[in-house]
């Protein structure tokens, strides 16, 4: 399976964690015409050192948008809440390989609900940790910062990790997309897509840049797709 970039497309998924929660519907409606997905970060204060939001917020967001919702569970034992997030309106659920000893079972649970399944890896987790579940997932999420807070700087070695994953996915012909989350911005979008990224997850680069949301998204997409391959 070749990357989206090779076919002239890339998925942009703005992270609402960086949006204005006092005007969340406004920000979602502003970004909605220009993106494909919407990224929702769920944090429990245990797996990561921060607390964000949970099921009620996902349910509220589902009511105001038809965008594809990719829900990133940064929580311990995510299988406890997969059913509830599915009911709240998630289209894709990511579970961390580090957060459960039964990652295959969690992926099966997601798929049994008719959702897309994703597996996420922290920066310090080697790709080998997901070798046995790659045939069963739809998306692999490479964390390019240590998860828990928005606005962090991109870890440069993530590019090599993405490239190695791209090579593996293509070699084995897995039907898997590669997503990256953490420090993604207009400037590095091209490098990320060149390395093999299909899904760019960006928060502050879209919602907190010193430019309108539409302009930030369009510049990111232009830079991603104009980069020489």
Task: Please tag this protein with its features.
229 residues, alpha/beta, eight-stranded parallel sheet, 8 strands
Can you walk through the features of this model?
This protein is α/β, with parallel strands linked by helices. It has a single domain, classed as Aldolase class I (TIM Barrel). It is 33% helix and 19% strand. An eight-stranded parallel sheet has the order 1-8-7-6-5-4-3-2. Helix 6 links the parallel strand 7 and strand 8. The two termini are 16 Å apart. The mean pLDDT is 93.
Q: What are the SSEs and their pairings?
A:
Blueprint: E1 11-14, H1 24-31, E2 37-43, H2 55-64, E3 68-74, H3 82-88, E4 92-96, H4 103-112, E5 116-121, E6 139-143, H5 158-172, E7 177-181, H6 189-195, E8 199-202, H7 204-207, H8 213-226
Parallel strand pairs: 1-8, 2-3, 3-4, 4-5, 5-6, 6-7, 7-8
Helix pairs in contact: 2-3, 6-8
């Amino acid at each position: 399976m070749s990357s989206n970039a090779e076919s002239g497309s890339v998925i942009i998924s703005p992270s609402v964690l960086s949006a204005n929660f006092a005007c969340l519907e406004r920000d979602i409606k502003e970004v909605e015409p220009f993106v494909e997905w919407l990224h929702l970060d769920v944090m429990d204060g245990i797996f990561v050192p921060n607390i964000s939001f949970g099921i009620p917020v996902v349910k509220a967001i589902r009511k105001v948008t038809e965008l594809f919702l990719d829900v990133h569970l940064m929580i311990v034992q995510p299988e406890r809440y997969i059913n509830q997030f599915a009911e709240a309106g998630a289209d894709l659920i990511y579970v961390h390989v580090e957060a459960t000893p039964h990652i295959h079972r969690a992926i099966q649970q997601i798929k049994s609900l008719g959702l897309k399944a994703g597996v996420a890896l922290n920066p310090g987790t080697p790709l080998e940790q997901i070798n046995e579940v790659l045939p069963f997932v739809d998306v692999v999420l490479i964390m390019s910062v240590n998860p828990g807070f928005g606005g962090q700087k991109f870890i440069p070695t993530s590019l090599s990790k993405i490239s190695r994953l791209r090579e593996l996915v293509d070699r084995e012909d897995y039907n898997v997309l590669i997503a990256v989350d953490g420090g993604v911005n207009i400037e590095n979008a091209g490098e990320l897509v060149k390395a093999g990224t299909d899904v760019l997850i960006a928060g502050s680069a879209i919602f907190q840049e010193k430019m309108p949301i539409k302009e930030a998204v369009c510049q990111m997409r232009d830079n991603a797709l104009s980069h020489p391959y």
